[in-house]
Amino acid sequence: MADIKWLEVAVETTEDRLEAVSARLTMNGVPGLVIEDEAEFHQFLENNRQYWDYVDDGLLERMKGVCRVKFYVSDDADGKRQLAAWMEGIEEPYTTAVLGEDDWAHSWQKYYHPMEIGEKLYIVPEWLKQTPVPGGRTAVYLNPGLTFGTGSHASTQLCLAGVERYTVPGAPVLDLGCGSGILSIAALRLGAERAVAVDIDPKAVDVAYENAALNGIGRDRYRALSGDILTDAALAEELAETKYALVLANIVADVIIPLSRQVERFLAPGGTFLCSGIIDTRAGEVAAALERNGLTVLERWERKGWVALAARMA
C-alpha cells in the first residue's frame, strides 16, 4: 500500500453552515470528517493544555478565520466517482490535493489526542502509546490508518459509552460497519470473548486487524470481513451462525433502518443491539423501525446532535 495516493478534499464553508455541511456529507455516506474551525481549535487548546507540545508552531496562525470540512478519497476512478456522490447537494466550493499515505498519517496526528470516554475507556493514538493511562481506565490503542473511527466523533463516543455499558464478559460481539475496529476492540479490551467486525470498505479489514494487534488481540479472537450484509445473503447467513450478546452498528439511519429487519438473526437471547451515527432529527424514525421489527428501545443517548440507541428483542 506504500504507493497508494489519496485526495484530501477540503470543503470551504462558514461558521453558520458548518453543522449543515457536515450533516449532509455524513448523510451522503462520508465515513469520517476532519473539522478545521478556528473556534473549535482554540477550545481544543484550552481544554488540552498538556498536548500543546504536539501543536505545530505555525498552526495557530494558519487556523485564523478557518472554517472547512475535510475528508479523503483514493486518487483513482473509483475515488472520484465516490467524491461526486458524496458532494451531492453541497453547494460550497471545494479543493482537492494529492496526498501520499504518509501525508494522511501526519494530517491525523496533529489533531488526534488521548481521550477519556465513559467511566472506563481511554483512547490513545499509537504514536502516544507511552502516555500514562489514568487509574481505573482501560486503554484502547489505535492507528486510525485509512478509515473512519478515531473516537473523536460524537457518534463514536456515544457508541463507546454504550459498549462500556453493554459488553458481556466472556461473550461474543458483532461489529457492523466497523471502520477502524474501535468499537469491537474496545469490547474485547473490556472482557468480551471474541469479535467479528464487518465493513463494506475492504481497506477497513487490514486497519482493524492492525489496531487489534496494537492491543494484543490476535486473529484467534478477532475476525475482520469485508461485505454488505444488506445485499450479501451468504455473508449474513454466515454471521447468523453465531449468536452475539452485543451487536454494534455505528453507521447512519438509512442503513440502520433496513438492518433492523435482520438484527434478530444475530442476537443471543437477552442480547443488545447498539446503534449510533443517527442525526437527532431522524432518531424517532430509527426508533420506530426498531420497534416495528420486534426490538424494544432500552436507552437513548444524545451528544452534539447525534443519537445512539440501545435495544433488545421484545
From TrEMBL:
<dbReference type="InterPro" id="IPR029063">
    <property type="entry name" value="SAM-dependent_MTases_sf"/>
</dbReference>
<keyword id="KW-0687">Ribonucleoprotein</keyword>
<keyword id="KW-0808">Transferase</keyword>
<dbReference type="InterPro" id="IPR050078">
    <property type="entry name" value="Ribosomal_L11_MeTrfase_PrmA"/>
</dbReference>
<dbReference type="InterPro" id="IPR004498">
    <property type="entry name" value="Ribosomal_PrmA_MeTrfase"/>
</dbReference>
<dbReference type="GO" id="GO:0008276">
    <property type="term" value="F:protein methyltransferase activity"/>
</dbReference>
<dbReference type="Pfam" id="PF06325">
    <property type="entry name" value="PrmA"/>
</dbReference>
<keyword id="KW-0949">S-adenosyl-L-methionine</keyword>
<dbReference type="GO" id="GO:0005840">
    <property type="term" value="C:ribosome"/>
</dbReference>
<feature type="binding site">
    <location>
        <position position="177"/>
    </location>
    <ligand>
        <name>S-adenosyl-L-methionine</name>
    </ligand>
</feature>
<dbReference type="GO" id="GO:0032259">
    <property type="term" value="P:methylation"/>
</dbReference>
<comment type="similarity">
    <text>Belongs to the methyltransferase superfamily. PrmA family.</text>
</comment>
<feature type="binding site">
    <location>
        <position position="199"/>
    </location>
    <ligand>
        <name>S-adenosyl-L-methionine</name>
    </ligand>
</feature>
<keyword id="KW-0963">Cytoplasm</keyword>
<comment type="function">
    <text>Methylates ribosomal protein L11.</text>
</comment>
<keyword id="KW-0689">Ribosomal protein</keyword>
<keyword id="KW-0489">Methyltransferase</keyword>
<feature type="binding site">
    <location>
        <position position="156"/>
    </location>
    <ligand>
        <name>S-adenosyl-L-methionine</name>
    </ligand>
</feature>
<dbReference type="GO" id="GO:0005737">
    <property type="term" value="C:cytoplasm"/>
</dbReference>
<feature type="binding site">
    <location>
        <position position="250"/>
    </location>
    <ligand>
        <name>S-adenosyl-L-methionine</name>
    </ligand>
</feature>
<protein>
    <recommendedName>
        <fullName>Ribosomal protein L11 methyltransferase</fullName>
        <ecNumber>2.1.1.-</ecNumber>
    </recommendedName>
</protein>
